[in-house]
């Protein structure tokens, strides 16, 4: 299937009932399902690979647009990247949104950094934002997060909940962003249990396929489980769904979700009893904040950091599985916020 996945969105997005169905939809994300033609001003949202139904990073951004559509009465238009895209294809997607009159235009994912910088120059009256990267431009906001801080708390939880004293981390790829997740998790686990064995791996060493490959994540998780690892934290977008599925098949093991509260995701409902907690990255809050700033006539520009101290990242408590260690999690959070603990980023 060729061409970008395009979807006109309504205030209430259609739910996906199973993770397996989600895999099918996003794998076929290069096809087009469009209505309305994208005419008229509103918000243009360009997703990274995996699309809205990744139950993770992109889904969080989509919730921000949903909220803006409901509360700010703006229109919205979504487009999704496919695996292995060229820079020219990303530029074309952003240009298409800006050319249709969408304002603001938001690139969800670090891959949009260079294309945002180039297209923003061509449309100086349009406000742009990129999530997870720092892009230059007087009409560009760069939205970044303290992933390492939320991941530190996940490491604390993993160490306290592991019965084998072996925990694992699976990243999409080996880049600066995923290193933040890994470094925080490893540090949190080791600060909590000096004897813990933390094993980390990635799905790919380059490219973006690691964010859209649940089958590989499932196999990677199975391998870790076979080694006696009983808590696995996966930071890999849609791929994480495969890891969660593998963990759900082995009694006494836990998955830690990422970006969205994955316990609450309808498409992962059948696995929720295996989801210990999630490192929530409030992309939805950042997206809504940016859209509102544009609507208010004072569009945000420059870097905007969302850290633990301002709830930019957090650890979910859905399911009640970490209620018994809540005091220790809060203590770790306070130590970070107060500056007693500095979390590594690599």
SSE arrangement, N to C: EHEHEHEHEEHEHEHEHEEHEEH
Mean pLDDT equals: 89
Could you say what the CATH architecture of the largest domain is? 3-Layer(aba) Sandwich
What is the share of helical residues? 25-40%
Q: Order of strands in the sheet with the most strands?
A: 1-3-2-4-5-6-12
Distance between the termini: 37 Å
Main beta sheet: strand number and arrangement? 7 strands, mixed
Describe the protein in words.
With 346 residues, the protein is of the alpha/beta class. The protein folds into 2 domains: 5-146 and 283-309, Response regulator (Rossmann fold, 3-Layer(aba) Sandwich); 147-281 and 311-337, 3-Layer(aba) Sandwich (Rossmann fold). It is built from 10 helices and 13 strands. Mean pLDDT is 89; it is low at 1-40.
Describe the structure in brief:
By secondary structure, the chain is an alpha/beta fold.
Secondary-structure topology with pairs:
Layout: E1 5-8, H1 19-27, E2 43-47, H2 57-71, E3 76-80, H3 87-99, E4 105-108, H4 113-122, E5 128-131, E6 140-145, H5 147-161, E7 166-173, H6 176-192, E8 197-204, H7 214-226, E9 231-235, H8 240-248, E10 254-259, E11 275-281, H9 283-295, E12 302-306, E13 313-315, H10 326-337
Parallel strand pairs: 2-3, 2-4, 4-5, 5-6, 6-12, 7-8, 7-9, 9-10, 10-11
Antiparallel strand pairs: 1-3, 11-13
Helix pairs in contact: 2-9, 3-4, 5-6, 5-10, 7-8
Jot down its keywords.
single chain, 346 residues, alpha/beta, Rossmann fold, 6-stranded mixed β-sheet, 10 helices, 13 strands, disordered N terminus
């Amino acid at each position: 299937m060729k061409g970008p996945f395009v979807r006109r969105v309504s205030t209430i997005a259609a739910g996906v009932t199973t993770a397996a169905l989600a895999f099918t939809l996003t794998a076929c994300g290069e096809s087009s399902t469009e209505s309305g033609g994208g005419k008229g001003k509103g918000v243009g949202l360009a997703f990274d690979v995996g699309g809205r139904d990744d139950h993770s990073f992109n889904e969080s951004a989509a919730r921000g647009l949903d909220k803006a559509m409901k509360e700010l009465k703006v229109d919205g238009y979504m487009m999704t990247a496919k695996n292995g895209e060229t820079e020219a294809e990303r530029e074309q997607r952003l240009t298409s949104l800006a050319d249709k009159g969408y304002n603001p235009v938001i690139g969800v994912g670090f891959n949009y950094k260079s294309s945002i910088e180039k297209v923003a120059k061509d449309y100086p009256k349009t406000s742009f934002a990129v999530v997870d990267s720092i892009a230059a431009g007087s009409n560009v906001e760069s939205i970044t997060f303290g992933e390492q801080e939320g991941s530190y708390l996940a490491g604390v939880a993993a160490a306290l909940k592991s019965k084998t004293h072996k925990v694992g981390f699976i990243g999409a790829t080996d880049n600066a962003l995923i290193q933040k997740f890994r470094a925080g998790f490893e540090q949190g686990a080791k600060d909590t249990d000096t004897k813990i064995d933390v094993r980390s791996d990635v799905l790919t060493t380059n490219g973006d396929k690691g964010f859209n490959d649940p089958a590989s994540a499932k196999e990677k998780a199975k391998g870790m489980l076979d080694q006696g690892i009983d808590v696995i934290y996966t930071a890999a977008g849609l791929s994480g769904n495969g890891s969660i599925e593998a963990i759900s098949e082995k009694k006494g093991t836990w998955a830690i979700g990422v970006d969205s509260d994955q316990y609450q995701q309808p498409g992962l409902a059948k696995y929720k009893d295996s989801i210990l907690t999630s490192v929530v990255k409030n992309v939805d809050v950042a997206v809504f904040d940016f859209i509102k700033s544009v609507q208010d006539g004072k569009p945000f520009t420059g870097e905007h950091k969302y850290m633990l101290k301002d709830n930019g990242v957090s650890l979910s408590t859905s399911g009640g599985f970490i209620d018994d260690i809540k005091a220790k999690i809060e203590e770790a959070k306070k130590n970070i916020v107060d500056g007693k603990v500095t979390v590594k980023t690599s």
